[in-house]
Amino acid sequence: MKKSILLFVLAMTTMVAAHAQGPRIGIRAGVNYSGFGGSDADNLDRIWGGHGGLTANFPLSTDNFFSVQPELLFSMKGAETSNDQTKFKVNYLDVPVLGRVNAGPLYFEAGPQLSVRISGDVEQNGVNVIDDLDAFKRTSLGYAAGIGLAATPLGLNIGVRYNGDISKLYDDENAPNYRNDVFMLTLGYLFGGAR
């Protein structure tokens, strides 16, 4: 599965780079405020986590108005019961491929996202009771959308992003109807100055 994702990212990057002008590679990191959505998630609250990884931006127009932005991010997600007794912590590798509109210093982004669960645990009253979450699906499909500010000559950008899953967390139809539901505050830096 990991090889498939790596090949997918490589293929997307190569395809976009063939048509792009002035690709830039960078890093991204920030804070997650995550929870579980779904019809059975009413008694669950959000928890704090983080994200970090690689980002790239491939302009598809000479004025850089429209670009494609693939990313590979380690992302901490999860939720806790409203009485704080049980906490679900799930770590993913997220691969969003976002279309981005650059309107001056403002940018708007949206696109599909593939997530691969790499670890997770369940804590009860601060004690780890389950070391892995094999009952959760290994991969999930979702979407991401956001808005932000970019200082293009410096390569810096800061934004807010929402990402949610289309896929349920559990394969078992009798399990609760949970989906990942994440708000992100994210800071990015693209190497190389404005051209």
From TrEMBL:
Domain named Outer membrane protein beta-barrel: residues: 24-162
InterPro entries listed in its UniProt record: Beta-barrel_OMP_2 (IPR025665), OMP/PagP_B-barrel (IPR011250)
Domain of life of the native organism: Bacteria
Residues of the signal peptide: 1-20
Keywords, comma-separated and alphabetical: Signal
Name of the featured protein: PorT family protein
Species the sequence originates in: Pontibacter aquaedesilientis
